[in-house]
Amino acid sequence: MASDLKSRLQNDLNEARKQRDKLRILVLSTALAEVRNKEIDLGSDSDDETVIQVLSRGIKQRKDAAEQMRDARRGELADVEEAQAQVLRAYLPKELTESEVRGLVREAISSGIDQMGPLMGSLMPKIRGRFNGKEANRIVREELGA
Questions:
Q1: Is 106 helix (H, G, I), strand (E, B) or coil?
Q2: DSSP secondary structure letters along 32-81
Q3: Do 95 and 130 meet the contact criterion of CB atoms below 8 Å apart?
Q4: Signed CA dihedral, 130, 132, 135, 139: sign only
Q5: pTM for the whole thing?
Q6: What domains are there in the chain, each with its CATH number?
Q7: pLDDT digits (tens, 9 = 90+) for 88-131
Q8: CA 16 to chain centre
Q9: Which residue, 115, 133, 126, 69, is CA-closest to 93?
Q10: Among candidates 28, 23, 22, which has minimal Cα distance to 8?
Q11: How far is CA 144 from its chain centroid?
């Protein structure tokens, strides 16, 4: 099954090339290369979930790089990383709010999952690419009273 999101990335890359948009060309070609590498690792075509994982990882890497650059007083480089992350963010599903994630956690707890590991295991597939994992971990700890 071919990924609609991957096709969208490819089409947008072609459009960025026509417009000579260097930032989008760089970000989209890098993202597509990462998707291809993931497909090689998996030995099959990617679905939208796989593409979302790759894009989420790319956003996290750029966010971390921007933080390090700001700490090193290299604001202009941090701005570039943040702009790249913003391009990728446009391809992810709508972000979840903290209250929505808290609701998912409470729902899982009410279904009988009362331990950190299994709770995070059931929660992450639902929120991947839509909410920060560290923040989700904090919410789970609060809801479990740990």
A1: helix
A2: HHHHHHHHHHHTS---HHHHHHHHHHHHHHHHHHHHHHHHTT-HHHHHHH
A3: yes
A4: positive
A5: 0.73
A6: 4-89 (1.10.1510.10), 98-144 (1.10.10)
A7: 989 988 888 889 999 999 988 888 888 888 888 888 888 877 88
A8: 22
A9: 126
A10: 28
A11: 26
> Cα separation of 69 and 76, whole Å?
9
- Tokens standing for 8? 């969208």
CB 69 within 8 Å of CB 77: yes
CA angle, corner 105, sides to 102 and 107, nearest 5?
A: 110
C-alpha span between 117 and 139 (Å, rounded): 13
CB 29 within 8 A of CB 13: yes
Q: Which two tokens stand for residue 39?
A: 């497909």
Residue type, 108: A
